[in-house]
Amino acid sequence: MPLSKQQISTLISLVVNSTPDSLSCDDCLVNVAEFAETELMGTSLCESMLKVKQHLNNCPCCNDEYQSLLEALRSLNN
Ligand SMILES: [Zn+2]
User: Fold this and answer.
1) How many domains does the chain have?
2) In whole angstroms, what is the distance from residue 7 CA to residue 2 CA?
3) HSE (side-chain half, CA atoms, 13 Å) at 14
4) Which of 35, 36, 48, 66 has its CA 20 to 30 A from that of 74?
5) In a domain, 49, yes or no
6) What is the pTM of this model?
7) How far apart are the CA of 78 and the centre of ligand 1, in A?
8) How far is the CA of 56 from the centre of ligand 1 (A)?
């Protein structure tokens, strides 16, 4: 059964929406400390933290920042 135009456009929007990176690097860095703490405490991520996570996956630059922050937090906790 061929897909209707309606179904195709629904599928396309699903694919597009499944990989959102609506955060800019600035927005990410504002929240990255909170994200690192949330990760360390193992609490579940809220919507804005999920956006940070998404951005970190797509942005090696912010991910570097996040990794060094994580290091710092870990050494504080020990
Ligand atoms: Zn970034």
Assistant:
1) 1
2) 10
3) 6
4) 48
5) yes
6) 0.68
7) 28
8) 7
CB 56 within 8 A of CB 63: yes
Domain holding 72, by residue range, is 19-77
- Structural domain contains residue 43: yes
Place of tokens 């927005």: 27
User: Which spans in 2-59 are helix H?
Assistant: 5-18, 25-41, 47-58
Residue 9 CA to ligand 1 centre (angstroms): 30
Let me know if residue 11 belongs to a domain.
Answer: no
Q: What is the pLDDT of residue 58?
A: 92
pLDDT at 9: 84
**Does the residue 8 lie in any domain?**
no
pLDDT by residue (tens digit) across 26-70? 999 999 999 999 998 899 999 999 999 999 999 999 999 999 999
